[in-house]
Amino acid sequence: MNSPTLVGSLVFAAVLVVLIAVVIQLMMIGWRRRALRQEELIGHLPDIPDEVGTATTTLRGVYVGSTLAPESNERVTAGDLGYRSKAVLSRYPEGILLERIRANPIWIPQSAISEVRTERFAAGKIAARNGILAIRWRLPSGVEIDTGFRAGNRDEYDGWLGEAA
Length: 165
Hints:
Pfam families: bPH_11. The chain has 165 residues and is of the alpha+beta class. Helix content is 26%, strand content 34%.
């Protein structure tokens, strides 16, 4: 029953499983180290004000992540900024509120926004026809980041693009 081919196949499968487990563990260690390095750089995010005006524009879609500006590949992993999630993006006179499912909301004060534009590529995600709304803003620590959002209906981006700072 135990032919050399069967034993060899089982040994190969066991080695392959161990190798995959080691690679996944190394990826997780790298993610945690990057998050620790960025925590000092990022600092604390702005708090949501107690009172804000009426939302002027709202989009439903997906938060694709944040990157350190101007590098579109330097993904921010500090806190829960590195996790993609469904979200609602709302524009207020005082700023922008990004409410994410199973993650803390992100408040972007109007005074911190330097640019709102569309991109084809952000935070390791690619979208067709400039499908990602990218908001460049300055954190209280002084670091600029790009926050990416992909709406379900990309035709609604026009209401966001002319209202940067």
